[in-house]
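G., before I forget:
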Amino acid sequence: MSYPANTAAAQGLALCHVCGHLDKVELHECTRCGGGLHLRKTDSLQRTLALLVTAVILYIPANILPIMNTVQLGKGEPATILGGVVLLISMGSYPIAGVIFIASVMVPVAKLMALFYLTWNGFRREPASAMQCTKIYRLTELVGKWSMVDVFVVAILVALIQLTGLLVILPGPAAVAFAGVVVATILAAHAFDPRLIWDRLKEDND
Amino acid sequence: MRDTASQTHTACEECDLLIAVPAVAEGERAECPRCGHTLTQKPRQGFERSLSFALAACIFFAMSLSFPFLTLANGGIENVMTLLEASVAIWREQDPVLAVIVFVAIIALPIALIGTIIALVTPLVLNKQVSWLPRAGKLMFFLNDWAMVEVFVIGVIVSLVKIAKLATVILGLSFWAYILFAICLTASLSGLDRLQVWKAIDAATP
């Protein structure tokens, strides 16, 4: 594989994965912090793809199973993520319904699609605009954590309501699955190497 | 033994363009000329500001662990919830994985992060030569990826709205302390740019 002449990789130089120091790649270890040196992230596309598939698989129970179970007077009322959004809308809490819908439904789906798109472009010989792909990549990095909101909501409601007696809220199996989706997509975004897209550019297009 | 190119040059993290290390004055920011990625920035009095916000965050965090977080009042029954209880209650409901995820994201990692920032920045501000700076630097940037303090704050607000119809919720001292902690932590991190921090670590490591 040859790299475009204006890149560090073409000179045999790589940024340390840990501290970002530029070093000769043949040293294998960063002279500043001892971190690993690779021209590009190891098996970037394969790892990203594997983590994305994991996230997609976890996304199914995360949406089908209840995220929490409200037990009132001995009667259980399980609610899924989407069910929770519908309930909030019926309560008239539109802004909060919006926050949960964006954080729990739109962001994870958009993030999965974006990362699949980036990975696909990484495999293609002539990818779409590198600038556009880089912008998409930045977005996926930025929104990473925010999908955890719903998991924290469950945690708080369980803790807050447990002792009132009449009403008990129990965490549902979807909560763990959903946390898994978030962690897998964060790891997938970390594993993806945006430089791969730039490597495919012909130099005269720069 | 470092060769010259790795001293004078750096590469863009996102597109691998090889560039001379940009000289930035206080208050300035340097972008990659090809993809626009922020290569480095130097906030005014960055390290001093980081340290003072980190110390303030430390105090607010201690406060948020010691007082009631939220109190639920429902027909004469009062349930006081502490910050720790958000994960302890889930543990009690037989969901240890979720309990650990919540504990790590909102309590363990933030404490570790604050501690690491203080351990790292104090010697930098005082111009002391310390041997463990590279290790602290590595740890800080890793922890920063996984602490979810600001996401938890949004989660709390969403829970409050969800519960408002069921019972009266009293916001505890710990709740306000945690919000101030989140603000101080974010402010502290904003003064720490990767390139600048590692440059300072280089200069301060014996």
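The mean pLDDT of chain A is 85. Chain A touches chain B through 68 residues (CB under 8 Å).

More on Monday.
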